[in-house]
């Protein structure tokens, strides 16, 4: 986390929501923004050291988690989350100049965009067919090239591809956001801010009754709220799976440290994925007995009991 | 725990089960055995420094815990358990020489002895009336003095009071034992043996839903079995109560230390009452992930994660 960030990899092409999220990161200013075609390509560029940092979508509040990103961060060569960005999900319908709503027979977008606009599409252009693109920006490019009639993308992509905004603020679910994470190669976590989130992956080597309850208890007994939990197969065979977990607090907090050590002890393996400031600036309510000072006092008391010197 | 034990206080008079338990303690040999009339008197003698050690009954497996001892150790000036003794519960019916079963109209004993022999009394001397004594030995003394016809006491008390054993091995419940504890003024606990028990008291300042579950979770999440739990009022008003808890393990065990720190953090107060070798020599089954080595490894891992130096 030291030194200037000189280059950022992101899911291209230019004009994606990921690029818009990247532009909101303070350390992206003055850095080179390098587009890559897929999430794995973005992450591999960072792993190889071709770039200093990367940004990818992790979670979409309408569609749930983004499986590729979770799997890559959980089981690929380790990377570390150092920041997050939440962007409202809001699409624009981009068309070539002169196109009217009646002319739209095909609509292209990234597969994640389509279900978020399904109702709007059914209400406004019910006869248009949907086409998949690797990104919304690529969909815009296809429209500019004349392959499709319209693209669902960020309105910021219109100018870049010489398109017009035919409709704006398209989304089925109000207040939906996409969550992006900024990544580094493994490093010391950013300093705690008092409003932090931690991501970790717990691996279950052999499934057994109560495995999830066992993990959740490690958090609840220390008063830590989870903000996301997602089970995934590890690919290592039946009965072997993992839990991706996001939770309140910073790895430097005593309660978080003890919970992570608890996971480490009871799970087949644990991967720390990062502690970083929350995009929503929510400060957790710290439960009675789980402040750092409580842990410090308890440790001093235990020492006095063990040595017989009160 | 260092130095020779020169004097032991116990619940007298001579001939009680407590004296028999005391005789089984290795460090009682060569020490002066000083009888006191009540459990609080025994404990106060130790608190004042009149004796080096004391022994009292803590738990009777037929009648449950001995409330006075629990309350004294939980809320009186602190003392520490350093050893335990388990004696089979087995009474003798002691009479003056020449007395036959038909002559027995009154039977005296400590109130704890009566319910443990209720069925035997009903079957064998159904018309005899029971009388309370402050100890079974005192009951024997009363018989010797001619106040009562018979006493329920240890057979070892017969010779001491010039009585005969009219019946032996009296107990309603097979395998019942009384548990005694040896006490010291607060000190460093005896070394762990691999088969240890720890006693602690958790104070609930203000009752709230889930208070007991919260406490039990501190143990279960670290794989620690409780062997005794007993709630008692603290005397400090409604909603204020305590839990006496005995559990597997030694305060020097990592899992026990972390559980005690957890209690200390979430409870109004915690009193450590002692870690000492188990009388039954049972070695706990240590659950996956809760060995000392697991805690050490997890702490090293957390340190590497916090500093970013894997």
Automatic annotation (TrEMBL), chains A, B:
Give the source's domain of life in one word: Bacteria
- Please name the InterPro entries in this protein's record: ACT-like_dom_sf, ACT_dom, Chor_mutase/pphenate_deHydtase, Preph_deHydtase, Preph_deHydtase_CS
| GO MF term set | prephenate dehydratase activity
Q: In which pathway does it act?
A: Amino-acid biosynthesis; L-phenylalanine biosynthesis; phenylpyruvate from prephenate: step 1/1
> Could you say which EC number(s) this protein's record lists?
4.2.1.51
Annotated Prephenate dehydratase domain ranges read 7-185
Keywords for this entry?
Amino-acid biosynthesis, Aromatic amino acid biosynthesis, Lyase, Phenylalanine biosynthesis
Q: Does the keyword Amino-acid biosynthesis apply?
A: yes
According to UniProt, the name of this protein is Prephenate dehydratase
């Amino acid at each position: 986390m030291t030194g200037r960030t000189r280059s950022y990899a992101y899911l291209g092409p230019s004009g994606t929501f990921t690029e818009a999220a990247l532009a909101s990161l303070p350390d992206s200013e003055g850095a080179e923004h390098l587009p890559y075609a897929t999430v794995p390509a973005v992450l591999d560029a960072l792993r190889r050291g071709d770039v200093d940092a990367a940004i990818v979508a992790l979670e979409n509040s309408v569609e749930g988690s983004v499986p590729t990103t979770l799997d890559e961060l959980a089981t690929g060569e380790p990377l570390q989350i150092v920041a997050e960005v939440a962007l409202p999900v809001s699409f624009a319908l981009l068309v070539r100049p002169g196109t009217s709503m009646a002319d739209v027979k095909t609509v292209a977008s990234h597969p994640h965009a389509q279900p978020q606009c399904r109702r709007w599409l059914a209400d406004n252009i019910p006869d248009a067919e949907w086409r998949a693109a690797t990104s919304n920006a690529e969909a815009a490019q296809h429209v500019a090239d004349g392959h499709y009639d319209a693209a669902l993308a960020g309105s910021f992509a219109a100018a870049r591809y010489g398109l017009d905004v035919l409709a704006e603020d398209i989304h089925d679910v109000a207040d939906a956001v996409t969550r992006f994470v900024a990544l580094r190669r493994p490093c010391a976590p950013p300093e705690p801010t008092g409003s932090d989130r931690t991501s970790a992956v717990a691996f279950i080597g052999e499934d057994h009754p109560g495995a999830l309850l066992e993990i959740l208890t490690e958090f609840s007994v220390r008063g830590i709220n989870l903000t996301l939990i997602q089970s995934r197969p590890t690919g290592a065979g039946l009965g072997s799976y993992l839990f991706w977990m996001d939770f309140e607090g910073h790895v430097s907090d005593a309660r978080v440290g003890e919970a992570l050590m608890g996971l480490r002890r009871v799970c087949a393996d644990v991967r720390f994925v990062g502690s970083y400031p929350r995009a929503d600036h929510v400060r957790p309510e710290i439960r009675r007995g789980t402040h750092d000072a409580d842990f410090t006092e308890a440790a001093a008391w235990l020492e006095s009991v063990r040595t017989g010197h009160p």
